[in-house]
Please model this.
Amino acid sequence: MNPHFKSKAENKERAFFRKFGKVGYTFHTVKGKRPNIIQKVTSDFIYVTTEKSKRPNRIPRSSLRRALAFLFYRRVTTLKALIKINSFSSALAGLIKTIMIDICRVSETKTGAVRLSLRGLRYIFSGVSKAKDDVRIVKQNGGTFILLNFVNIRSDLTDSWKLNLQQLGFDYKCVILDPGAKTIAEAEQKGKFIKPIDLDAYAEFVTRHSDIIFQYLTLDIIGDPETTRRNTLFLERAVGRKPIPIFHVQNSLDVLEEMIGEDHEVIAIGGSVLVSRSRRAEVFAEIFNRFGDRANFHALGLGTTHLLMRYPWFSADASSWLNGRIFRTLISITGDVKAPAGMTSEEALGFNVRTLAALEDRYADIQMDFGLMPPAFGAVLG
Model:
């Protein structure tokens, strides 16, 4: 497990035991609601008893931390999947839920499993398929996941894109893969021809690079939910794991209702760049009012900061962080601002990465942290 997520887990676990993990503290199993009482906490174990047990049961803290690190990394999982890290223990499951309940949304899957979804927003940095230096800036400033475009890297026979990531320290599954349908559509509008996406080749690519691909998006067709659905089912069978399905804002919300019924961990909301900003806001409001407590939504290519902050997105991707170089703008939670005259493009990009990466730990209200600025510029904007 990556040290970043292990550190989060250790800090969260220690904070819990400092505040609550005292002798006599009671937490409950998830399903049966049976009470478990903490009798002792050491550096290695938590000792708990139930109403009926005569001797304390031991929960290894190492197992607890591994489970918490996995949740911080995945951000959505079931308790059943978490406790597979250790032998099944209803007490361990109850303790995980108790520790994380303040920053998690709890729901139930169709099969009755308890699902935990972390609050906050994971920002995935796109626009880096061919730019090693941009990936370095993301890594050095706290970005943990990037989005790559299959169309842009499929012809890289030496897999240099992957080697670049590994050399920069991305030693875990950090890539969200987009098939690149939007890239092809934009090229066609300019009169350029790009080879169409072959579903078999896309599935084979995902499988071959499964050691670094965290998630992958389905091949979507705007205005054609049936073909998009068929593509999704094909990819699930071919790859052996589900792609992230995509709902387009141009379609009826009944289509989204069906997708939610299929019990996906995350559903991407796409097609919004093709409608007006007011229509986007209207559709997003409808989606979250109707389904916000039933599913996790990913904002696909949403670079508009105020719409990103306005709704409780689970995750998002965009290349707008690159505006620090293109337009010399800094992304602020309260609105974009102009970079100070003495700030370099790399410093501006780094600021944007830090701002957006920090959203993952936003469990309550968002506040702009001017501590993200390099020391020479904090006073200028503060």
